[in-house]
Design brief:
Blueprint lengths: L14 H30 L3 H9 L5 H72 L2 H10 L2 H10 L2 H8 L4 H27 L1
Helix pairs in contact: 3-5, 3-7, 5-7
Length: about 200
């Protein structure tokens, strides 16, 4: 049998392909080495990833950041001013409310006192009309048994001639005290009469 030889028809890679393969191998090697070195640096505390990230995605420009910060500061200042004004208005409203409540209480007290004065004056007039129609000695006995303030108020609304006859039969010391108290009671009595007439 005759020996047959096979002739290879494959051509060796061209120079360009070989150069490209070497470049790819070099790049892959460099990347692998960079990854290993970066991992080692991160392990010891060097912020490699942050540095690369900042380099790939840079932060906004300084003037843009400053403008944003100034705008935020201005807005914060406006909000602070509005909050302070609101607090001031709330405090003023609280003070006004307290003053109003105090005035209402004072008016209520004055109205109640005025009502008591008018009621006491009416009772004194009724008592005086009864005593005037009685015998002076009996009227004096009734006057002595009355409360001092009521007796003084009754004397205050009487005519001087009527009260004089009754007080003549009252012990002198009590009579002088009733006359003095009746003189002091005449001013509020006149005020009560005026208010009753105008209402």
């Amino acid at each position: 049998m005759a020996n047959t030889t096979t002739v290879s028809t494959e051509r060796p890679p061209s120079l360009f392909k070989r150069l490209l393969i070497w470049i790819l191998l070099a790049v892959v090697g460099l990347l692998a080495a960079a990854g290993i070195i970066g991992g080692a640096l991160e392990y010891v505390g060097v912020p490699v990833i942050k540095t690369v990230t900042d380099w790939v995605m840079p932060l906004p420009k300084k003037h843009e950041t400053a403008a944003t910060a100034n705008s935020q500061n201005a807005l914060s200042s406006q909000i602070a001013v509005q909050v302070a004004e609101n607090h001031s208005l709330e405090n003023q409203l609280s003070l006004d409310t307290q003053k109003l409540q105090s005035l209402k209480a004072e008016v209520k007290k004055l109205v109640a006192e005025q009502g008591v004065q008018v009621t006491d004056h009416a009772a004194a007039e009724t008592e005086a009309n009864i005593l005037v129609q009685m015998d002076p000695q009996k009227a004096a006995a009734v006057l002595e048994n009355m409360k001092f303030t009521a007796a003084a108020r009754t004397i205050a609304v009487m005519q001087a001639s009527d009260s004089g006859q009754i007080l003549a039969d009252v012990p002198p010391q009590l009579a002088s005290k009733l006359i003095a108290a009746a003189a002091l009671d005449e001013k509020p009595t006149v005020s009560a009469n005026t208010n009753s007439a105008t209402s």
